[in-house]
Design a protein that fits this description.
The chain is about 30% helix and about 20% strand. It is α/β, with parallel strands linked by helices and about 475 residues long.
Length: about 475
């Protein structure tokens, strides 16, 4: 993982001044004729996200002016790669008649600067890259920022890593290192031991791969503390199984463990900040491949909860492995159970790549999470657990069908399938996410992405602590 781009001193650092677009005319009155002419020559009007590099009389870079017109978490994200390599610090924020929380504004600027410096270049033979660094102001919570950025980098790195280097057991090794870092309990159940320990659905999905399936478990905290369980879909590669994907549909399937990556990042943040809770992390990790012992369309498989499932489509494998993990999670009766998964294309059709679909068995809990997400610009959107749609995943020969025959409401029916494995007295949140940036944007380079992680942390820290 790359280093976080902070410096410890403003010595020799170049100042950055932020100017609100509506206050630009007033601000420029206080500038010298030289600087005023420079801004005019560069057509700089402090439009949102515009950057102006300002030289001194000696021709060297003296300061940077950045325009903004709204509260934008990602404002700092586009700067590190647009300015000369060096050290910088946030000097002034000029905004007249604007209601700005300056501490939060500076915090967001620093976080997004760090996220904008991210790159995944470890596989390049010539991978030296110089990144501009930022001084973190004393008045903001540097410990939180460092741990948050580290956690998002973990998520991005895991998603971006090729499957060859991130099989289920290699994901287990990575998880064990995180557990060791925080003196947490760790265990992994793999291969045939999944059958012996009653995780039949995880085994069925992953048994065809040469890389054994496993269930990864991390746990820390006393039993008398509020209990949080996090579950992440860890399909390290998804060929679709016997219902084989097309080559284009398979191209990004190294990211089908994006739910697990988000959960590992969130767990790192919670453990790193030592929240006073009992945390358990469960990652069912598999590769959905084809071989002579693949599970097949029409098969009926058992699950930990005792619910039988007819296989309507082998490419609806994520909900099967989550079913066993969620049933196991409920056995400890957590105060809050959260799962994250790259589960359905239907959620992306409904909400696009940037907004995870949120499902919960508590409308109040769902609204709380959405509110936290809005406050920190980490968006989510709630979809209903519409009970009547259970008819779409019924089976004539088993308790449920993992896919059903309808092309409608795919994200909802997938969530309803998962809800069948949740105990009624357990508060549950399910996020159906994409975990990938298809284009470069400030702070969000192409590749794996953490989604909902900041909002979930705020919900957890306020609700359970």
């Amino acid at each position: 993982m790359q280093h976080i781009p902070f410096v410890d001193t403003i010595k020799n650092a170049i100042p950055i001044h932020l100017v609100h677009e509506s206050s630009f005319k007033e601000w420029i009155k206080g500038q010298s004729d030289f600087f005023t002419q420079w801004f005019k020559s560069n057509n700089f009007m402090a439009r949102h996200g515009d950057i102006c590099l300002v030289p001194g009389q000696d021709g060297n870079l003296e300061k940077i002016i950045v325009g903004f017109s709204k509260s934008d978490f990602w404002l700092g994200g586009g700067i590190p790669r647009k300015v000369p390599t060096g050290s910088y610090y946030l000097d002034t924020i000029f905004a007249l008649n604007e209601n700005i929380d300056y501490i939060k504004f500076k915090e967001n600027f620093c976080i997004s600067w760090c996220l904008g410096s991210y790159s995944f270049i470890g596989y390049k033979t010539k991978s030296s890259e110089n990144i501009s660094k930022l001084f973190c102001p004393q008045e903001i919570d540097k410990k939180y920022i460092l741990k948050l950025v580290e956690s998002i980098f973990i998520t991005r790195d895991l998603i971006n890593t090729p499957t060859e280097d991130l099989s289920p057991l290699k994901l287990a090794d990575y998880s064990e290192n995180i557990a060791k870092k925080y003196n947490a309990e760790f265990r992994v159940i793999k291969g045939q031991d999944l059958i012996k320990n009653n995780f039949p659905a995880i085994h069925a999905v992953g048994r065809a791969s040469i890389n054994e399936p496993c269930l990864i478990e991390i746990c820390k905290g006393e039993l008398n503390l509020p209990k949080l369980t996090l579950v992440g879909k860890g399909v390290c590669f998804d060929s679709g199984g016997m219902d084989l994907k097309s080559s284009s549909g398979m191209r990004l399937m190294k990211k089908d463990m994006g739910g697990a990556a988000n959960i590992m990042g969130l767990a790192n943040l919670i453990l790193g900040l030592d929240l006073p809770i009992r945390i358990k992390v469960l990652i069912p990790a598999v590769e959905n491949m084809i071989s002579s012992n693949s599970f097949k369309p029409g098969d009926i498989i058992s699950t930990r909860k005792g619910i039988s499932v007819e296989i309507g489509n082998t490419d609806a494998e994520g909900r099967l492995i989550l079913a066993d993990a969620l049933a196991y999670a409920c056995e400890e009766r957590p105060d809050l159970l959260i799962d994250c998964a790259t589960l359905t294309g239907s959620a992306r059709s409904a909400l696009g790549p940037d907004i995870p679909a949120l499902f919960s068995n508590s409308d109040l809990l769902a609204q709380e999470l959405i509110t936290y997400g809005k406050e920190i610009e980490d968006p989510l959107w709630s979809l209903p657990l519409w009970e009547d749609y259970l008819r779409l995943i019924q089976s004539k020969i088993a308790d449920l069908n993992n896919a059903g025959t309808s092309s409608f409401a795919g994200a909802i029916t997938a969530a309803l399938f998962l809800e069948s494995f949740i105990d009624k007295n357990v508060s549950w949140i399910h996020l159906d996410m994409y975990c990938w940036n298809n284009e470069d944007r400030p702070g969000r380079p192409i590749g794996g992405e953490a989604q909902g992680q900041r909002a979930l942390f705020d919900l957890i820290s306020n609700k359970l602590c």
